[in-house]
Amino acid sequence: MTISGLKLHYVVADYGGFGGPIRMLLDDAGVDYEYNYIPFHEEFLTKVRHQWVEQGHPFDCAPMIELDGKRYGASQPIIRFLSKKLGKYIPTDDLDAEQFVDATTDYAMDWARAVFKAKYVGGEEGLEEYKNTELDKFFTRFNRIFGVHEGPYALGQEISYCDFYVYIIMSTGPNKEYIDKYPNMAALAEAIRARPNLKEALKHF
């Protein structure tokens, strides 16, 4: 199924945060879309989220997409929805594989929150504490997860939406310089960087 006329709203510029994986999936699939960056403190908190509710959208959080006259919210539900629309990036006939992708994404979001807390709440001290106490824990966890199946992606040879989440978080903040220390993470990075439709997106990492 093709997708056209999609608009994605999010509060982090470029490919950061939980909107980034959605953008990478759309880019990889060759889907044209409009990206609406909404400054978080200046516009989203004070105005935009209230406007969405007034307009009948019950979810006052971003990311949000508009497609075919409808609005859909929340990062992982959006990316699952789009994957099913596209007929790829999500297992369609294997519930165990689908659960594995979902679990990997859930853990990736935990990793993202840990980095966000260290960087934006803890400052320089927070980042140092993260590197000393959390960084290896998360890399070791995902190096193990990506070793379950044979191949560079979480499911092995076939890319799924969780791979975009993991690539973005392991390329964020202090994580990027440690990727090569973990073989399965290095293999994922190499595979993602080789995908032709992601060349523009990868300039942001």
Task: Describe the protein's architecture and organization.
With 205 residues, this protein is α+β, with helices and mostly antiparallel strands. It folds into 2 domains: 6-86, Glutaredoxin, CATH 3.40.30.10; 95-197, Glutathione S-transferase Yfyf (Class Pi), Chain A, domain 2, CATH 1.20.1050.10. The protein is 54% helix and 9% strand. The chain contains 9 helices and 4 strands. A 4-stranded mixed β-sheet has the order 2-1-3-4, covered by helices on one side. Helix 1 (20-29) packs parallel to helix 3, helix 1 crosses helix 7 and helix 4 (95-121) runs parallel beside helix 7 (161-170). It starts with 5 loop residues before the first strand and ends with a helix.
Which keywords apply here?
single chain, about 200 residues, alpha+beta, Glutaredoxin, Glutathione S-transferase Yfyf (Class Pi), Chain A, domain 2, 2 domains, 9 helices, 4 strands, globular
